[in-house]
Amino acid sequence: MVEDNLKRILEELPPEVKLVAVSKFHPSEEILEVYRAGQRRFGENRPQEFSAKVRELPDDIEWHFIGHLQTNKLKYVLPYASLVESIDSLHLLDAVEKWGREHDKVIDVLLELHLGAEETKGGFTQDEIEAILSRSLSGVEGSGVEGSGTEGSGAEGFSHVRFRGLMGMATNTDDMAVVEADFARIESFKRSLEDRFDLPDFTELSIGMSHDWPLAVKHGATIVRIGTAIFGPRVY
Ligand SMILES: *Cc1c(COP(=O)(O)O)cnc(C)c1O
Questions:
Q1: CA pair distance 23, 31, nearest whole angstrom
Q2: In terms of CB atoms within 10 Å, which of 115, 127, 132, 232 comes out highest?
């Protein structure tokens, strides 16, 4: 039963770590079972499926978008997502900034660090993330910052994107030493960013899935994204 799966995870998860129940490919009735058991934070990875479920399901769900987002699909995601966890290119980031400006909305995002060994996995290099954060800070310099939100920032900055932290997916392997090395790398990279950049909102580290989330918690996860261990296998 999904309720029992959820309960078992919540018993072990430290209370300060946020659980995203990854409901992709599962129908709304199954999501409602988990909702009725008390879960209010869900994650989806396909834009149209995301917006359809948002419209069907209760209003008090906090939706995270965790998949690859093409710039022509922003309208399915940005009006509804509490957090876009998977910003994986500068092209996408600039498009989100532009959408936010046009819709007078500040979008909370995580920057995805390319973490696993797979070339096919998306995400930024560490250097790219440093460059984005530098550009973000140079854009808001001298604007008074606090709460002013949409005004006063330079053209180069990101006034409609709020950087909330990092997301990463470990190498897809049963070798837990490899997974742990990936988590250790993103954890120490996040620390080094916190030391070098003055970003009070940059607090989140989203790492850990069904098979590796305890290791992620050990390495500073503030968000874990768990699908299979709650909903069972996905039917593709
Ligand atoms: C599907 C998915 C998850 C959840 O994976 P499980 O192994 O089912 O827990 C987590 N993060 C992302 C980005 C995903 O696409």
A1: 7
A2: 115
Helix, strand, coil % in the chain, rounded to nearest 5: 40, 15, 40
User: Distance (Å, rounded) from C-alpha 205 to C-alpha 209?
Assistant: 13
Instruction: Say if residues 63 and 87 touch (Cβ distance below 8 Å).
Output: no
Give the number of other CB atoms < 10 A from CB of residue 226. 21
Tell me the residue range of the domain where 70 lies: 2-231
Ligand 1 geometric centre to CA of 59 (Å): 23
CB contact at 8 A, 199 and 236: no
Kindly state if the Cβ of 227 falls inside 6 Å of ligand 1. Answer: yes
**pLDDT tens profile 151-204:** 444 446 899 999 999 999 999 999 999 999 999 999 999 999 999 999 999 999
Residue 185, domain member (yes or no): yes
Structure tokens at 1: 């039963």
For residue 224, give the CATH number of its domain.
3.20.20.10
